[in-house]
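Quality-control log, excerpt.
Job 1 of 2 completed; input and output follow.
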Amino acid sequence: MTSEAAQTPKGIPDPAAVLDGTDWAALEHAMGAADDAREMLVRLLDTDQSVRSRALDYLNHVVHHQNTLYEATIPAALYVAGILTDPRTQWHVDKRHDVPGLIRAELLDWLGSVAREADDEAEAASRRHGFPPEDHPPFTGIRRIRPQLFIAVSGYLRDPDLRVRVAAITACIPLLDDSRLVHHRQALVPLLRQVLAASERWQHQELAIETLQAWDEDTSGLEVRRNPFEFCDAELGASGWGAATSLASTGVDDPPF
């Protein structure tokens, strides 16, 4: 890593140390041994947009294939959290879901998707199907690092780029199931109301309402405004919720993080 990535937030491992200190070949992802992970993760910050885009596809379809947590997902998530402050994450990736996007927003979406596979709902579903999540090391590993992921993600709740801001909000939601982080929920409530609930995307409206209800917050006056004449909204991004780019302008105040 270069000095561009030197301002890693306190509490998050240095991304270069994660790369060099991880025995990737001893870990697994969707394709077997993760011995290719180090090289592919480095490419997320490549100067070539097509290379960055392929590295992002690798994250989505190999390290976290079909929303599955693998052994390699844990250090990969720490690496992604560590590079978010790198100015190169403001570069674009190839056009996807009909809109171009900053790789920073895509990485936040990815972290949100990873976090959702270790939240309370995922735990309950696993138990219902007879699979104790505590017996699944990737699940417990992601849970263990949730405070570190929150440090990284919450730094973008006030980002001037609305796409990044939305991705950060949606990524924070599953992280705040953690008992060590639950006290941050109250600070996120205004953003759920003023950004997600005010979004032009019905998926964001729905997520805001469902989250507020789950947190025992008042949802009076909020509704899902789905266009009955529209067959479907444009396809969402890797994380499902964070990929929409067309949002109502809100002017919401910065949260107290």
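Job 2 of 2 completed; input and output follow.
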Amino acid sequence: MIDVHCHVDFKDFNKNREEVMARAKKKLSAIVDSGATLGGNRRALKLVEDYKGFAHAALGFHPVNAIKADLDIIEKAVKEIHENIDKTVAIGETGLDFHEVKDTESRNRQVKVFKTFIDLANEYEMPIILHARDAELKAFEIIKKYSKDIEVIFHCYGGDIETAHKIVDESYYISFSTIIAYSNYHEEIVEEIPIQNILTETDSPYLSPFKGQKNEPSFVEEAVKKIADVKSLPVFKVDQKTGRNAKKVFDI
């Protein structure tokens, strides 16, 4: 199994990161830690050093954080991505969040930053990981228009099924998090999506499948199990196929 989107670099794991990673190594073949800020990118790169061959880094800037940060910080993040591109398996997360951001000026800034990261992914022919919340169709239209021949992953997708079909028709990927363990709506989306377009993630420390527990990469098993149940497939088949999808996308 592979957790293609987590945040083990977050301070939530400062007290037990080694134990979390040890549990992950017992069940998974790899994780992709996704940078959400300049500091997050740096911490993701440290994870790559600390857990060589197991932890991989995606470097980006979360769209909500992009509104809060000064432009020079975003520019510095872009510069450091250029400098560390050989240690990177994807650009992201990046994208649009119209749930948290309501005003037009801030949304337009999100779009501008999003396009900057699309340019990065195009330049290096890297996969790009999208955060799209209450803006899934808008994000799809932008990535379709501006991206070149790169892999596109809509992480933790929760948009409408019509847009999900458009995403798949472009041969993009949809990553399902552990939220599927308790969300009937996400089950409906999985029913509609071919297994060859599915990836698995936790988005830890968020979206735990176990009430009262902080999410962690090893819990991605719960997403794999639920997808298998929805698809009426053996768990090992879903594990095998989604794992192959991830290895292909991220070249890991």
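Post-run check on job 2. The longest strand covers residues 88-97.
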